[in-house]
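Exercise: predict the fold of this chain.
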Amino acid sequence: MYLQSKCDGLVHTLQLNNVLHIPSNQNNLLALGRWEDGAGCKIVFDYSEVILTTKDGTAIAKGEKLQNNLYRIILKLASNPMAEVVCFSANTFPIPWKTWHRRFGHVSYSGLQNLLRLNLVDGFKVDASSPKPDCIACAKGKLFEAPYGPTSKNQTKISQLML
């Protein structure tokens, strides 16, 4: 399968081998890990974009960051320029503890460390040097107010309760 990309005003043709393509799908996923492994090319992830480069460093495709660490790269089928293929890829740089804490539904940092130590989650890349700050939402969730107990003395006269 051949795809065309437009980058910095130039059109580049990419050849994909051993791929599954569903023409009726509006969005197709492209695993960029094979880009670096097989071709010796590079992927540069930034917080707002992804750049696919050749061995010599020439940028041949760029994409923008969407949500949930997905990037969109607009590519067109070389045989049919009107068919647009949208590819998504997750980022590969380590993510701070605070972000993982929120993504896992406010799991404790020790629980996250166990997940990392036992290698229980695929793609769980943590910036181990990042801080583990106190979470305001977790602190508020642990707060409670003791119920009012029975009064020690019954008031029998008017305005005694106010004294």
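Check your answer against the key: The beta strands are 2-7, 10-15, 27-29, 42-45, 49-53, 59-65, 70-77, 84-90.
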